[in-house]
Amino acid sequence: MSIERLSRRITAIAESATMAVDSKAKALKAAGEPVIGFGAGEPDFATPDHIVAAAVAACQDPTSHKYTPAGGLPALKEALVDKTERDSGWRPEAARILVTNGGKHAVYNTCAAVLNPGDEVLLPAPYWTTYPESIALAGATPVPLSTDTDSGFRVTVDQLEAARTPNTKALFFVSPSNPTGAVYPADEITAIGRWAVEHGIWVFADEIYEHLTYDDHVHYSMRALVPEIDSHFVAINGVAKTYAMTGWRTGWMIGPTDLIKAAGNLQSHATSNVANVSQRAALAAVSGDLTAVDEMRASFDRRRRTMTDMLRAIDGVDLLTPQGAFYAFPDLTAFLGREIGGRVPTTTSALAAIILDEAKVAIVPGEAFGAPGYARLSFALGDDDLVEGLTRIGNLLAG
Known about the structure:
The chain has two domains: 8-46 and 292-398, Aspartate Aminotransferase, domain 1, CATH 3.90.1150; 49-287, Aspartate Aminotransferase, domain 2. The chain is globular and about 60 Å long. Strands 2-8-7-6-5-3-4 form a seven-stranded mixed beta sheet, sandwiched between helices. A three-stranded antiparallel beta sheet has the order 9-12-11. It has a two-stranded parallel ribbon with strand order 1-10. 42% of the residues lie in helices and 13% in strands. The model has no long low-confidence stretch (mean pLDDT 96). The protein has helices at 8-11, 17-30, 49-60, 74-88, 102-114, 130-137, 157-163, 186-199, 222-225, 257-270, 276-287, 291-312, 348-359, 383-398, and strands at residues 36-37, 97-100, 120-125, 141-146, 168-174, 202-206, 233-238, 251-254, 327-328, 361-362, 364-365, 375-378. The protein is α/β, with parallel strands linked by helices.
């Protein structure tokens, strides 16, 4: 009997489509191509100065050159208690917080610590590309639930109930949403939370875009609205999007103590603690005021309105106005089966390839998010590039 060379579990993981698109766009740009990338899910701003200053001070402090507890700096966890109360409306104990290597690590830890083979996880689509991979790595099965522009990309309790089986163990809940920009109102969050409580279902709530909402849309934490969900609720968050700190790799998860202990044990063997300097920077971020955050959000809002207007000006594009995060998620099905740049795309993946080849603009096709026919465009890039990129797309699709 031959032994397989590599792990089936690991080789089944799909490459992150968003990272792949961003990498390809950067490679083409480095080769001299005038590529504009709408793929990256990261702010184009520098990390605020006071946060960088805290990191510099940490570098000069010999205590930062050593290990911290695997679960995070005690001072950072205490600051996250206060930050959660300020921003989310509920106050966890520090023992219920695990500091992780970014929000993505918190997603992985949560799935690994909660799920077993045979479990099912309800996954409203469109979804962030990492969710189904983390679910599958835990041996569980993602169960996608389709939403669309007409439904506001929001799943209903009726949909959840129709998909529930005896194997349903968890629900991924995301508001504001990556990739759609949808934000759930308080009454819908409350109804979903009460449904989860009634059936003993875990809710994994990704709240990383909590500060990026627009117009009259507001982020609500399900735990604040439905306190009785506490024993089956995990909040996943991080400094990446709010404070322009994607490269610092600091996130956290907040949940019941038994879950946090189990996830902490896993992390102690997998990665140990998050880089000490990054934790000190995160401490400065979450302990400070939100002035820099408000300034970044104002820029995102301006770009959001520009992108919305320019996409809607393209005949055939259907678009939900982004309500949060920094993405637009237009429906591009009108362009499938039509000649574009001398080719006839039948999928948005093929359409995205044509747009990159002909217009030198990178977008992420909806297939990556479980939503064929759509595409994700980030408006976290400079105003001039945003207008130029959308003009190129418009010209190509109108051609």
